[in-house]
Inverse folding.
């Protein structure tokens, strides 16, 4: 009994604002979905980290303990813990339920730009402007990092982790991919300072945004350029980029207050979503649904596709 | 019958023997149902089939462990206290008591061991077995016995063995004759009925062809008369198969089955008997081929008729077959068999060489000179002049190394001008050959003076200062360091060991230094009377007292200076005093090529570097990934040791040498430092940044000491210079800053000259990459910073315009504002900025406090000596300078622009906003002087 395959729907882009969270924590430095996309984390410049239900707009918990603004956060695969890094040079491991600090990893010599859990949340990888990536062991009580990846010549702006790779973008204009399984380091020169890197969902490509207002899609294995996306403005700030939930579109923040969507294959601009005046600092794309979170100033906007209807009338 | 039962009642499971067949008419007994068929153990408990250790019945308590309550540990002992004496559990601890019983797997009952059992059982037999091990009825039996039971040899056996006797030899004096083939020789093992002993032996004796005179042989073993009673049913003297032959024997030995060849028909007759007996399964081949046997063709060689002669013909003489038509090959092979015995089988088509091969002549390896060292090491090179000859001496004493003869300087130790001199060239006029040429006459004199002064005084100074400054230990480090570092300054090419551990306060007096070191060692060991031990006994009391004081103080100084210094500085990544440094084996190379590749969008091979990278083992474990390099202890990029004194290492290496000397030397040369104050090193002052701290004077001294470790890429020098300049700026006034900048430049040649001198071609590459990096950093940082700055300033200037247009922005909580302001000001100039907080309303309302705050911050900046900040400011200044003209335009623009909210105006403020950073970079590169 084979049912006919459901017709592949055309990709819908989130362009309907369904919710605006006024975070009340100063500038929202980063907004991140949790692993299943039901919750989101906002990193505030008032040293707090907040956990939200973005669709309902309810604040679930506030995590305070950072000594400076929080610059990035990530949730573990089992939603049991969070990690965050900030201007206080510390990487903090939080317990989600209790809101307590579990561990504080100190060792970075500069503010921590980006943090990531590995797949099993046993290691936190943090990239800092001290041009090092440090791998902190969550399992042991060791205060030192397991390993320090200090190959970068300048600050690390972005770190992403797959099951056996660490992808790091650095201000020195290189994207470095540490392959643990092969024991090799691949360094791709892009030239302009990297602001954000990410893997595609299929793990075959890396998306790299740099300060020359260009996003590049590179083949992971060969480093070849698969696509180039421009039209937005990113020349001075560390802005996020990502791929849509089905790798159909490339999404990037812009300094002109919009979020730009490009078709991944064609490279054509699909949508320039006006968010508001100012700089769209951060964005996060839902892992499975066309749902986008943007951070602008002190607020976070939640966007859905046009056909979306919020359940329970909470919008 | 049981089978019949089970056939009829298939659902029954029965154990034990079957029932008797039923009598006619008798009522069949009711079979015991399955649930009633129980087995009980000795305690009356039910046993269940289990299939485990003890005969398939359940062990323990119903297939579980222990008792009904389950397993209980014998006694609980806290492992916290008695961690050490944790008893090791043996297998018995996990066994059930049934297993230990008589029929268990490990019976505990006392049983006579086989050792004793075999002897006590049949002492006579045992004795006979040992005596006639070879002639046992079944030869393998004893062997098997030996395999199973520990072969316990009698003391007589062992004594004989120790005297050189070997099994199979006879006992007695050695005799001069060919060793007779021993009776138990496996080669002549006879299957079937044994041959009468006389015949074969006689023939063997006749075989003797050549016996060297001086060779003696063991006497032949005399088989004792066997008194063992015949207790088997074999024929007389029948011997079974020897497993030796069945399993490991060669084919040749099997052929002996058919007797010794020419001697007598009896063997052949016997053989026939064997062939008959084979059917009964007694013969060797009946056992089949063992797994270890190499060739089985011969074992299964069946006697086909084709192997036999079917027609009568002449027999070979001496054949001895006399008409018997047994296969010929057996006999002919017998000849080579002798030799093959120890070689093994010879391959087909090969024959044994008659002459041994002449061995190749080997030559011994060349003899090394006695003073040869397999490792080359570089001596610190001191150019001996009249000025520093004394210094040379001091250095040589302190370093314990011999100073090379100045005349034998190698080519590499000469600089260009000296090489030119040697070649007889006239020195190039006009262009400067040394950095010193760029110095004003006054400065040169000063340096010269100082050099001389330090030369003369350095050594005395430190000793004296140690002796004199009894209480002020504070002053000592500086003074001694001064002396210490003066070497560095004064020596061209000298690399004085500067690590704290190499601190040598008494280098002038090697004896004393030796005593001091001894003292230190003793003290480290914790000896209280360390001092007394190492003082020279021949000294006077007064001298001793003085030296004791000195030593104690020096030790204190050593410790304190070491600890204070080490608390401030990170360790140099490579040892300063070793001749080699570790550098990453692979370096990311050649940014220029990549840049052009990026421009051409030729991503891929051109822009990719691949390195071997070793993840930490624990990291692999945590990632659930097998360690790609399981054998290596390396972590990170593989590093190689390279010659330290190669300039190329330092061109790419960002790490620096130890800081203390540089700092001290900058103290030493304060005249050149200008308005520079000794800066407090911050946490940021790691490797790269440390270099940047150095002032121009440091740079000069570096330039003079050609091989000094602090010599690094030239790119930091650019920054250095800038920094130096900016430090001399009074912080706020731009024009004034520019003035002083030009002043600073007036007295020195431009950086490009320095670069032209010091940057080699490859240096340029790396430095340019660094420069570009810096530039791009500047570019991305600069505009952001400047833009932000200017936006702030435009804010203050044009509050109204901003306020007018920025109404609809979301309100920001008031208290967070100053925080954010502060944060923004304290941003480090790395990488892309974070976007500013967008709160125009607050800007308007909090204008006054904002300004105050800003001022405050600036004051704070002034007081704080963190050089990052300065750099930041410097950048700001620079950018302001750059944007000086644009600012006016900007203000107009932003006031007139429609989207005049702050961040937009900010982005608009970027004069060259349309230009890509690459473009900017290119422009900046083409106009390097603008940067100054």
């Amino acid at each position: 009994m084979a049912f006919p395959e459901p017709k592949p729907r055309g990709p819908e882009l989130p362009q309907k604002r369904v919710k605006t969270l006024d975070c009340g924590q100063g500038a929202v430095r980063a907004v991140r979905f949790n692993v299943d996309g039901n919750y989101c984390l906002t990193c505030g410049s008032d040293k707090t980290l907040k956990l939200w239900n973005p669709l309902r707009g309810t604040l679930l918990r506030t995590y305070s303990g950072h000594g400076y603004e929080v610059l990035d956060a990530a949730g573990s695969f089992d939603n049991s813990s969070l990690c965050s890094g900030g201007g206080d040079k510390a990487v903090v491991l939080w317990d989600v339920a209790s809101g307590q600090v579990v561990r504080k990893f100190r060792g970075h010599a500069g503010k921590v730009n980006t943090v990531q859990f590995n797949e099993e949340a046993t290691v936190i990888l943090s990239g800092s402007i001290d041009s090092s990536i440090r791998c902190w062991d969550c399992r042991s009580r060791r205060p030192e990092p397991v390993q320090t990846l200090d190959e970068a010549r300048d600050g690390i702006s972005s770190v992403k982790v797959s099951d056996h790779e660490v992808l790091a973008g650095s201000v020195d204009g290189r994207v470095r991919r540490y392959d643990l399984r092969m024991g090799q380091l691949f360094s791709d020169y892009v030239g302009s300072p990297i602001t954000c890197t990410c893997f595609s969902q299929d793990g075959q490509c890396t998306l790299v945004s740099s300060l020359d207002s260009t996003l590049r899609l590179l083949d992971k294995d060969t480093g070849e350029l698969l696509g180039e996306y421009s039209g937005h403005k990113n020349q001075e700030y560390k802005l996020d980029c990502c791929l849509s939930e089905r790798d159909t579109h490339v999404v990037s923040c812009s300094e002109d207050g919009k979020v730009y969507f490009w078709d991944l294959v064609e490279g054509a601009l699909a949508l320039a979503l006006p968010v508001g005046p100012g700089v769209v600092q951060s964005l996060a794309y839902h892992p499975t649904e066309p749902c986008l979170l943007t951070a602008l100033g002190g607020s976070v906007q939640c966007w859905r596709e046009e056909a979306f209807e919020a359940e329970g009338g909470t919008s | 019958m049981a089978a019949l039962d089970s056939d009829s009642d298939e659902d029954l499971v029965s154990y034990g023997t079957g029932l008797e067949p039923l009598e006619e008419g008798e009522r069949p007994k009711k079979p015991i149902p399955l649930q009633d068929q129980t087995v009980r153990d000795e305690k009356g408990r039910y046993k269940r089939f289990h299939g485990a250790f003890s005969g398939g019945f359940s062990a323990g308590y119903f297939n579980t462990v222990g008792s009904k309550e389950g397993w209980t540990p014998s006694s609980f002992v806290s492992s916290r206290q008695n961690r050490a004496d944790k008893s090791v559990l043996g297998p018995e601890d996990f066994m059930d008591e049934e297993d230990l019983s008589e029929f268990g797997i490990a019976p505990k009952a006392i049983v006579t061991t086989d050792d004793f059992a075999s002897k006590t059982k049949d002492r006579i037999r045992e004795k006979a077995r040992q005596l006639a091990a070879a002639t046992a009825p079944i030869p393998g039996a004893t062997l098997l016995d030996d395999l199973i039971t520990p072969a316990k040899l009698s003391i007589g056996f062992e004594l004989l063995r120790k005297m050189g006797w070997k099994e199979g030899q006879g006992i007695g004096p050695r005799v001069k004759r060919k060793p007779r083939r021993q009776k138990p020789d496996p080669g002549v093992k006879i299957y079937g009925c044994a041959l009468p002993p006389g015949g074969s032996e006689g023939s063997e004796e006749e075989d003797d062809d050549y016996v060297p005179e001086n060779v003696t042989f063991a006497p032949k073993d005399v088989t004792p008369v066997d008194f063992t009673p015949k207790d088997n049913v074999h024929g007389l003297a029948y011997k079974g198969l020897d497993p030796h032959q069945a399993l490991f024997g060669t084919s040749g030995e099997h052929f002996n089955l058919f007797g010794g060849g020419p001697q007598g028909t009896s063997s052949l007759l016997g053989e026939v008997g064997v062939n008959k007996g084979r059917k009964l399964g007694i013969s060797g081949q009946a056992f089949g081929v063992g797994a270890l046997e190499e060739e089985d063709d011969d074992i299964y060689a069946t006697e086909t008729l084709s192997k036999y002669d079917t027609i009568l013909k002449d027999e070979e003489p001496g054949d001895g077959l006399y008409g018997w038509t047994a296969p010929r090959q057996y006999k002919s092979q017998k000849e080579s068999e002798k030799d093959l015995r120890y070689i093994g089988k010879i391959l087909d088509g090969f024959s044994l060489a008659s002459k041994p091969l002449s061995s190749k002549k080997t030559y011994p390896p060349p003899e090394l000179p006695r003073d040869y060292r397999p490792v080359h090491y570089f001596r610190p090179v001191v150019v001996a002049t009249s000025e520093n000859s004394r210094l040379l001496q001091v250095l040589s004493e302190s370093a314990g190394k011999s100073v090379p003869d100045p005349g034998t300087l190698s080519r590499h130790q000469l600089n260009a001008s000296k090489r030119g001199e040697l070649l007889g060239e006239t020195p190039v006029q006009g262009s400067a050959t040394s950095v010193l040429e760029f110095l004003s006459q006054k400065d040169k004199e000063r340096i010269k003076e100082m050099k001389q002064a330090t030369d003369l005084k350095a050594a005395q100074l430190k000793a004296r200062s140690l002796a004199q400054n009894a209480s002020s230990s504070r002053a000592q480090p500086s003074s001694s360091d001064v002396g210490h570092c003066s070497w560095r300054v004064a020596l061209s090419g000298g690399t004085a060991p500067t690590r704290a551990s190499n601190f040598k306060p008494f280098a002038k007096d090697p004896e004393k230094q030796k005593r001091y070191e001894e003292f230190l060692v003793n003290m480290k060991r914790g000896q209280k009377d360390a001092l007394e031990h190492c003082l020279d006994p021949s000294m006077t009391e007064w001298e001793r007292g003085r030296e004791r004081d000195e030593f104690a103080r020096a030790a204190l100084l050593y410790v304190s200076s070491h600890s204070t210094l080490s608390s401030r500085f990170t360790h140099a990544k490579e040892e300063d005093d070793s001749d080699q440094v570790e550098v990453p084996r692979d370096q990311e190379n050649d940014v220029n090529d990549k840049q052009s590749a990026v421009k051409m969008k030729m991503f891929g091979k051109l822009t990719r570097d691949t390195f071997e990278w070793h993840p930490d083992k624990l990291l692999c474990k945590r990632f659930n990934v097998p360690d790609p390099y399981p054998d290596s202890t390396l972590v990170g990029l593989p590093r190689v040791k390279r010659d330290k004194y190669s300039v190329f290492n330092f061109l790419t290496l960002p790490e620096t040498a130890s800081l203390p000397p540089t700092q001290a030397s900058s103290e030493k040369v304060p005249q050149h430092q200008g308005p520079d104050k000794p800066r407090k090193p911050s946490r940021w002052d790691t490797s790269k940044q440390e270099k940047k701290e150095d002032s121009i004077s440091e740079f000069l001294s570096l330039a003079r000491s050609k091989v000094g470790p602090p010599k690094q890429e030239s790119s930091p020098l650019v920054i250095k210079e800038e920094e130096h300049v900016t430090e001399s700026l009074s912080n706020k006034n731009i024009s004034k800053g520019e003035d002083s900048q030009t002043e600073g430049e007036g007295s020195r040649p431009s950086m490009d000259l320095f670069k032209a001198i010091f940057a080699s071609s490859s240096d340029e590459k790396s430095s340019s990459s660094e420069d570009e990096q810096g530039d791009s950093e500047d570019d991305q940082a600069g505009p952001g910073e400047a833009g932000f700055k200017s936006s702030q300033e435009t804010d203050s200037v044009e509050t109204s315009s901003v306020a007018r247009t920025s109404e609809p922005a979301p309100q920001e909580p008031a208290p967070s504002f100053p925080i954010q302001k502060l944060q923004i000001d304290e941003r480090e100039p790395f990488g892309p900025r974070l976007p500013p907080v967008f709160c125009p309303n607050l800007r308007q309302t909090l204008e006054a406090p904002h300004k105050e705050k800003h001022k405050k911050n600036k004051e704070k900046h002034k007081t704080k000596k963190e050089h990052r900040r300065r750099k930041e400011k410097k950048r700001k200044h620079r950018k302001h300078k750059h944007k000086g003209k644009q600012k006016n335009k900007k203000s107009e623009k932003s006031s007139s622009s429609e989207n005049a909210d702050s961040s937009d105006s900010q982005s608009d403020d970027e004069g060259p906003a349309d230009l890509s950073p690459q473009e900017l970079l290119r422009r900046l590169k083409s106009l390097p002087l603008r940067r100054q």
Observations:
- The CA atoms of residues 27 and 298 of chain A lie 4 Å apart.
- Chain A is about 0% helix and 50% strand.
- The longest strand of chain A covers residues 16-22.
